[in-house]
Structures are given as structure tokens and as C-alpha cells.
């Protein structure tokens, strides 16, 4: 019997996945643990390997389809498991007539052999994408990674070798220049200046989540400015020490610590609303989502238990998550369980924005570029480092006064970072 492989549960609470890319086709032979398909659940894309060796008889679903957990995804005929066909029985009269004829020389018996499965390269989606961008046939590359996996460096090295000694181009034979063709207008209803791209993968999931948030939560945004002159000085002092430990220290870990401290003082912000049960769920853990831009769209990896991590541990975790996200290697665990989200435009600047809540959370903090601005201190105009914060809240749970108070708590910690020393354990 052919083996029916069903979409497994590849993450807590995941009920369906989107087929991002098939890595095999019907008729292919696969080895056990060979990647068959890229499936996206929530906001993470994972490769699903073949559970056993055999021939691909059927692929259920096309790229962009959403399939439920437990649905038959691939039908595999195991090598050597196919039953032998039952010989066809002839009528008695036909058999007797055949036995009366001279017996011809016996023909050689064909060997029922199964073609060996062609080897398939092991590479991540990001590495395959790099190979396509460089015009490299990834099947010609010898992988140097674990288990023969092809790395980005293998692809770049192969591309460089291929282009190092190009063959000389033949000298073209001059030909008469053809007459310019008469102008033919494009058919009505077509425009070659347009390109249509399928909405799938991370961008499709992001569109669904943002639409759900805007149509469910009652958004309102509060904006304030923060004098972070002392924070800039403190970070400049700590940055070389962090670099000695291999950690890139940005302002984001300080902001995470400030948010955690404020969330502990105002737990209603570290919550979600269970619409089905009509209950507010207060979280006693602090998992901070960090919105990260990638080539495929926006993802939100999570710093878990941020209250239990030191400043440098948070900085190292943010650095790891950002690199993993841009390589397309986030796991379901990396993007699940956030209780509060921070989105930062960083050096892109701008004045402020109105971020959309990462539903079902009830608040999100927007962080903007630190700029030197003239401010009034003790009736004197001085130049200070100023940061604008924009917080969006779910007005069904958070009223205006509560939201403004929370923002003031975050502001206090960032303007006087010495207060964070109690959090830097």
C-alpha cells in the first residue's frame, strides 16, 4: 500500500500551514529525511522532510494553498514495497492450442529492478534563493555544511569560480540592420509596465494578521518625546565592553528593559483579550516581540523571559533573532508566545507613526530615530538627544489615562537609565 504522509503538527497551537514551495515533483525518487516541501505556519517557514524513501506518486495542493494539519500532503510508494501483479489467466481452449505449437526458445527473463533515487541537495530556502539570484545550478555544488548541506558560502564560491575564466565570445558576423518594424499598439486591457506577484508566504500571513488586528482591536495611539541624552552617554560607555564579549549593543535592549519594568508596574498592558470567553488574560511572563523587516516581509521574533535576562543577554538574543530572521531560518518557537511588541524604524527617521497592535496583544511600542533637537531646560535652549515614542493600545481594554501613564513610566526609565540598574541582573 502506498504511504500517505499527512501534514504534521509542527508548532504549538498550529492548525494549518501554507505550501510555500514544493522541493520535489510527482515521479521523483526521494531519500529518507530529504526535504520535500516548504510550509509556513504563523510566520515561520520550515522544511518538511520525507519520512521514508520511495517514489512520489502524488502531491496534494499547489504553492499558495493552505492545508489543515492531518491532511494527506504527499503519497509515497516505498521502494521495493509495490506488490507483484497477478498473472493473467488464459481460457482453457486458448491454452491447449498454444501447447500444441512448437515451443520457441526461452526469452531472457527481465529483472524487475527499481531505479535508484537521484540524490538531492540539502540547502535552506535562503541558500536556494541565493543560488537562483546568482544564476547557479545548485545541484552542481558540493556542500561543505553538516551532512553535506550547501551553505551560502558554497554558492558564492561556486559562482565566483564559474565566472573567473569565462570563455571568449565568438566574433559576430556583421549582418545588415533590419528595417524597424511598424509600431503595433498593445492590445486594450494589457499593460506591460505592470507585474503581478502572488500574495503568499509571510506577506500573506502578515496581511491577514494586520487585517484581523485593525478589524478587531479598537486602536488609539499616544505619542511623547523622551530626552535620552543620559541613555546615549551610558550606551556609549558600555558599547566597547559589549563588543569585547562579541555582542553588538544597540538602544533596543535598554528599551526592552524599560518596557518590562513598566509592564510589571502596570500588568494590564501585559495581557490579551479572549473574545470567545469574554476574559482578560493577564500574563505573568514577559516575552517581548521585536518586529523585524526581511526580504519576504515583516516577522516578529520573540525574546522569551526578558525579565530574567541581563542587558547583554537581551542584546545577544536580539542579534541572533534578527540574523536568523533575515536568513529565513526562524523556528516556530522563535516567533510564538509574545506578550508585548516593540517595532523600531531606527535610522530611517520620520517623526512618528501609528503602529498596528500585534493581535491578540493589547499594546505595541513604536520607536523612532534619536535626533539632536533644541529643548528648553531651566529657561535655556539647549541641544539634547530626543527620541519619539508612539504607543498604540486596544481601547477595549486600555483607556487613554492608562495608556498615557504607561508611556510616562517607560519615558522615566529611559530618561534616567540609572533606574534600570535594578533590572540589569
Account of the 3D structure:
The longest helix is centred in the middle third of the chain and has 16 residues, at 201-216. This protein has 8 helices and 19 strands. Helix content is 26%, strand content 24%. It is α+β, with helices and mostly antiparallel strands and 425 residues long. Residues 82-111 and 113-119 have low confidence and may be disordered. The two termini are 59 Å apart. It is globular. The strands form 5 sheets. Strands 9, 12, 15, 16, 17, 18 and 19 form a 7-stranded mixed beta sheet that branches. Helix 6 packs across helix 8.
Sum up the structure in keywords.
single chain, 425 residues, alpha+beta, seven-stranded mixed β-sheet, four-stranded antiparallel β-sheet, 26% helix
Short description:
The chain has 425 residues and is an alpha+beta fold.
Shape: globular
Mean pLDDT, all residues = 82
**Total strand segments:** 19
Q: What is the CA-CA span between the terminal residues? A: 59 Å
Task: Report the C-alpha radius of gyration, rounded.
Answer: 31 Å
Low-confidence spans: pLDDT under 50, at least 5 residues? 82-111, 113-119
Strand content: 15-25%
Multimeric state:
single chain
Q: What are the secondary-structure elements, in order, as H or E?
A: EEEEEEEEHHHHEHHEEEEEEHEEEEH
* Secondary structure category: alpha+beta
The share of residues in helices is: 25-40%
